[in-house]
Write a structure and sequence with these properties.
Helix content: 40-55%
Number of strands: 16
Distance between the termini: 35 Å
Bound molecules: 6-O-phosphono-beta-D-fructofuranose
Largest sheet: 10 strands, mixed
Structural class: alpha/beta
Strand order of the largest sheet: 3-4-2-1-5-6-7-10-9-8
Radius of gyration: 24 Å
Strand content: 15-25%
C-alpha cells in the first residue's frame, strides 16, 4: 500500500513537472523537453544546440515549473550558505546550483565546511529566498577519509586520468561510504514523496543507492562536474563497483561532454547483469538509468555586464597603469596538478626564448588561489610553479620588466571579470578538465568590438563548444608558444570573427539552459515508454537485489 502511494505521488510530481512543458508549448514554440529529448538527442545523447531563440522562453519554463511544482533538493559536498553581506560567489558548482534553484522552491543539502567531533547532530537549516540550506558538520576523521582521502586523493586523480597519483586505502573507502550513509540518513528526514533530488559530483556517487535503500522512490539525478576517464582507467579504482557501479541507482547521470558520457557507457556494460535498454539507457538488475551530456555553463549575460562595469573600476585602472603599455596574457586556475600551470609557464618560457622581439612587451599574469592545501600533490605543483616562475623571471626579466606575475591572492568575481576584460590573451591550458568555466567567463567578459583571444587546451571540456579558440595540446610547449604569438599578433577582424559566434553560443547555452536541460531530461526518465518496468523496478528496491559482485 505504501509503495502504491509512493508511486502515485511520484507520478503526480512528474505530472506537475511536465505541466511546465505543456504551458511552455501553449506559449508557442517547441518545449525545452522536446529539444532536450527529441530526435537529435536520441541520436547523440547530448543536450542539443538551441538556435538563437533566446533565453526568455527557457526562463519561462523554469518559472512555470518552479515554486508551484515539487521541491528540488540539491545535494553537494559543500553548501554555500549566503552570509549577510557576503556577495562573493565561489566556484562553478555554486553558480550552477544557484541557477538550478532559481525560481524554484528548494533545499540545498550538504556539509557546512566545519569540523565537529561531537556526535553528529541534526542538520542546521537556514532559510533564504525560498531556499532551505541544510548543513551538517563532519568529524575530523570523516573529513579526512571521505573528503581529503577517497574523494580528493583517489577519485579526483583517477577521473582526471592521473592513476599514478591515486592514494587508495581501505580506510578511506570505508570513510567515503560511511559519510555517504550519513548524508542519506540525515537527508532522509527532509525528503518528501514528490521531491526531485539532484546530487552533484564525485563526493556523493553512492548516495542514490543509500537513499533507495531507505525506501526513497523519488526521481534522483546525478551530475559529474569533473571528467570521466576511459574504462581501463576507471577500473584501476579498487572495488569500483561499490562507487562507480552505484551510479546506476540514479535515474539520470549527466556528464560534461559526450566523451565523458561514452566512457561511462563503456563502464556500465562491464557491470554483471547490465544491458543497454535503448539509446543511452541501461538496465541493471531491473532498474533503468539514462545517461547524457549536459555541458555546464555560466550566467553569460550577467557576467558580461559585470565585466563591462568592472572595466571602469579603480582596480582595472590600477592594473592598466601597472602594465605601462605591456600586453597582458592571463592564466587563472585553482592550484591543481591537472590545470597544467607548470606546462604553461614552460610554454611562456619557450615563447620568450623563440620570440625575443616580444620580450619587455608582454607579461603573463598567473592568478592561482590555493585550494586543497592538504593534498600533497598540490604542494608539489606549487613548488614547481614558483621555482619555474623565478627561473623565467631571472632569465629574461629586467629591472623595469617582470615577465611573469604569479599571485595566490583571492580576487572577487567582479575584480576577476575586469581582469579578464583587460587581458589580450587567456591561456586556458589544463591537462584534463571537465569543462573549464574560466574559458567561458573570458569569452563573456570581452569587449565585442575589440575582443581578446582564447588559447584553449584540447583536453578541456569547453573545447567542444568554444570553437573560435586557438586549440592547443598543453604538453607541446612549442605549439602553445606558437599559439600565443599568433594570438598576440591576430588582426582585429579575425579576433572578432572568432569571438562573436562563441559569445552568441554562450548567451543561449548559459547555466540556466544547462539546469533546465538536465531537469527536463530527469523528468523525462519517468515519462518514457519503459515507465512500467521502471515502476516494477521500484517495487523491488535495491537492498533486496543482493550485493553486486566485487
Ligand atoms: O566547482 C569546481 C569543483 O572542482 C567541483 O567539481 C567540485 O565539486 C568543487 O570544485 C570542489 O571544491 P572544494 O573541494 O573546494 O569544495
Amino acid at each position: 500500500m505504501l509503495e502504491h502511494n509512493l508511486i502515485a505521488s511520484s507520478l503526480i510530481a512528474l505530472g506537475s513537472w511536465s505541466m511546465a512543458t505543456v504551458r511552455a508549448r501553449a506559449d508557442g514554440g517547441s518545449s525545452v523537453l522536446d529539444r532536450t529529448i527529441g530526435a537529435q538527442e536520441e541520436a547523440t545523447g547530448t543536450a542539443p544546440s538551441r538556435d538563437n531563440d533566446g533565453g526568455d522562453h527557457q526562463r519561462r519554463v523554469v518559472e512555470q515549473g518552479g515554486s508551484r511544482g515539487p521541491r528540488l533538493i540539491i545535494v553537494s559536498n559543500r553548501v554555500a550558505v549566503p552570509e549577510q553581506g557576503n556577495k562573493q560567489i565561489a566556484g562553478g558548482l555554486e553558480v550552477a546550483v544557484k541557477a538550478a534553484l532559481r525560481n524554484r522552491t528548494g533545499v540545498w543539502f550538504g556539509c557546512s565546511g566545519k569540523i565537529d567531533d561531537t556526535e553528529p547532530a541534526e542538520p542546521r537549516t537556514v532559510e533564504r529566498n525560498h531556499i532551505t540550506y541544510a548543513i551538517i558538520d563532519l568529524s575530523k576523521n570523516d573529513f579526512e577519509e571521505y573528503y581529503n582521502g577517497l574523494a580528493n586523493r583517489v577519485l579526483w586523480p583517477i577521473l582526471h586520468y592521473r592513476v599514478d597519483l591515486q592514494e587508495y586505502s581501505r580506510a578511506n573507502q570505508s570513510g567515503y561510504m560511511r559519510v555517504n550513509r550519513l548524508f542519506a540518513e540525515r537527508l532522509s528526514a527532509f525528503v518528501r514523496e514528490d521531491d526531485v533530488i539532484w546530487v552533484h559530483d564525485y563526493h556523493l556517487m553512492p548516495l542514490a543507492r543509500e537513499l533507495r535503500a531507505r525506501g526513497h522512490l523519488n526521481p534522483i539525478g546525478f551530475f559529474l562536474h569533473i571528467p570521466c576517464a576511459p574504462l581501463d582507467i576507471l577500473r584501476t579504482l579498487p572495488h569500483h563497483q561499490e562507487i562507480l557501479g552505484a551510479l546506476t541507482d540514479y535515474d539520470l547521470v549527466g556528464f560534461q561532454t559526450e566523451n565523458d558520457r561514452d566512457n561511462f557507457a563503456a563502464y556500465v556494460l562491464t557491470i554483471p547483469g547490465a544491458k543497454a535498454a535503448r539509446a543511452l539507457t541501461f538496465e541493471v538488475h531491473g532498474r533503468q538509468t539514462r545517461i547524457g551530456a549536459f555541458p555546464v555553463s555560466i550566467e553569460t549575460a550577467t557576467y558580461a555586464r559585470l565585466a563591462r562595469n568592472a572595466a571602469r573600476s579603480p582596480l582595472a585602472r590600477e592594473i592598466g597603469e601597472s602594465l605601462k603599455g605591456l600586453r597582458l596574457v592571463l592564466g587563472v586556475d585553482r592550484l591543481d596538478c591537472c590545470k597544467g600551470i607548470v606546462q604553461r609557464i614552460n610554454a611562456f618560457d619557450r615563447f620568450l626564448e623563440l620570440n625575443p622581439e616580444w620580450r619587455s612587451r608582454v607579461t603573463l599574469l598567473q592568478i592561482t588561489p590555493g585550494s586543497r592545501s592538504d593534498i600533497t600533490d598540490q604542494a608539489a605543483t606549487e613548488n614547481e610553479a614558483t621555482t619555474l616562475t623565478a627561473r623565467v623571471n631571472g632569465r629574461y626579466g629586467e629591472a623595469s620588466w617582470t615577465p611573469i606575475r604569479y599571485v595566490n591572492c583571492y580576487h572577487s568575481r567582479t575584480a576577476l571579470s575586469g581582469i579578464y576584460r583587460a587581458a589580450d590573451v587567456a591561456l586556458v591550458t589544463p591537462l584534463r578538465e571537465g569543462m573549464n568555466l574560466v574559458a567561458k567567463e573570458y569569452v563573456a567578459a570581452q569587449d565585442a568590438e575589440n575582443p581578446g583571444v582564447l588559447v584553449l587546451s584540447q583536453f578541456a571540456g569547453a573545447t567542444a563548444e568554444l570553437t573560435g579558440a586557438l586549440i592547443v595540446n598543453p604538453h607541446d610547449s612549442e605549439a602553445v608558444a606558437a599559439a600565443l604569438k599568433r594570438a598576440l599578433e591576430m588582426p582585429l577582424a579575425e579576433r572578432r570573427e572568432r569571438h562573436g559566434p562563441m559569445l552568441k553560443h554562450l548567451l543561449v547555452h548559459d547555466v540556466e539552459h544547462w539546469a533546465e536541460s538536465f531537469l527536463s531530461a530527469l523528468a523525462e526518465t519517468r515519462q518514457r515508454p519503459g515507465l512500467m518496468s521502471d515502476l516494477r523496478a521500484f517495487l523491488t528496491p535495491s537492498w533486496s537485489r543482493g550485493p553486486m559482485s566485487p
